[in-house]
Amino acid sequence: MPLLDIANVSKSFGGLDALKDVNFAVHQGQIKALIGPNGAGKTTVFNLISGSYRPSAGRVVFGGVDLTRKAPHAICRLGVGRTFQHSLVFDGMTVLENVTVGRHCRSKAGVLSAALSLPLHRREEREAFKVAGESLRRVGLEGKADEFAGNLPMGERHLLEIARALATEPKMLLLDEPAAGLNEEETERLAETVRRIRSEGITVLLVEHHMGFVMEISDEVVVLDYGRKIAEGPPLMIMDNDEVVKAYLGEALE
Ligand SMILES: Nc1ncnc2c1ncn2[C@@H]1O[C@H](COP(=O)(O)OP(=O)(O)OP(=O)(O)O)[C@@H](O)[C@H]1O
Ligand SMILES: [Mg+2]
């Protein structure tokens, strides 16, 4: 059984078919990439998995559990962590504080408990800082915990966002364009980090336009074009696929 199964999923917004009958699976321990031209539906797939959107048709199944009607915090608790295409770093908070934000979905104490600083809240807060520190170590940012996030270079901002997703204790990580805006050195550090995370047993699904990164890091690639899957397979096979080259790579490699 795959860890994630996207089964006959469609999503329309008014008259627009953002996704049309898309099928693919991600297996435990894989690094899988989702590529395609702008507007192909890649982020929409992430929003469907993480519960921000509901599919118009089809099912998203994670670890045998149907996510289709579940709320985002419930999906997070089941073990799906994500980062966002548009950076969500709070510049005025420290790096460590930014990561503790990720613990929200694991919190059982309510707002009242937090406001009154009740024991459950205080225990959860201690736990949040512990897990956040551990997550920073996993992405190699432990030395930056007390810096203002606003001072981090782009590559480390992206690592911070990955650490925040790790703090939710995911089985699977969804990374939306993690290499966007990074220089070569930062991209290489990112690749190493993602590989290390996978070696710790976390499955990765990533959206990326940086083809060198995709080819280097992924076990398998899914290609979307206008909301439809046009190819799926190992990176080298995808590079050789005429339809893919026509739809996307021709343009990206020019
Ligand atoms: N909430 C929404 N309401 C209306 N249309 C939407 C919504 N979300 C996405 N779309 C549309 O669905 C299509 C797919 O968008 P999506 O963001 O998934 O593309 P993408 O593949 O991630 O593109 P990019 O590479 O530019 O990030 C686009 O035409 C987009 O305008
Ligand atoms: Mg996108």
Explain this structure to me?
Helix 5 packs across helix 6 and helix 6 runs parallel beside helix 7. This protein has ten helices and ten strands. It has one domain: Rossmann fold (3-Layer(aba) Sandwich). It is globular, with a radius of gyration of 18 Å. The strands form two sheets. It has a six-stranded mixed beta sheet, sandwiched between helices. The protein has a four-stranded antiparallel beta sheet with strand order 2-1-4-5, with helices on one face. It has 254 residues and is of the alpha/beta class. The site of adenosine-5'-triphosphate has 12 residues, from strand 2 and helix 1.
Number of distinct beta strands? 10
CATH superfamily: P-loop containing nucleotide triphosphate hydrolases
- Label the overall shape: globular
Low-confidence sequence ranges: none
CATH class wording: Alpha Beta
Q: Find the structural class using helix and strand composition.
A: alpha/beta
Note the main sheet: 6 strands, mixed
Q: Order of strands across the biggest sheet?
A: 6-7-8-3-9-10
Number of helices: 10
Ligand inventory reads: adenosine-5'-triphosphate, magnesium ion
The second-level CATH architecture is 3-Layer(aba) Sandwich
Task: Round the Cα radius of gyration to an integer and report it.
Answer: 18 Å
Question: What letter string, H or E per element, gives the SSE order?
Answer: EEEHEEHEHHHHEHEHEEHH
Tell me the count of domains: 1
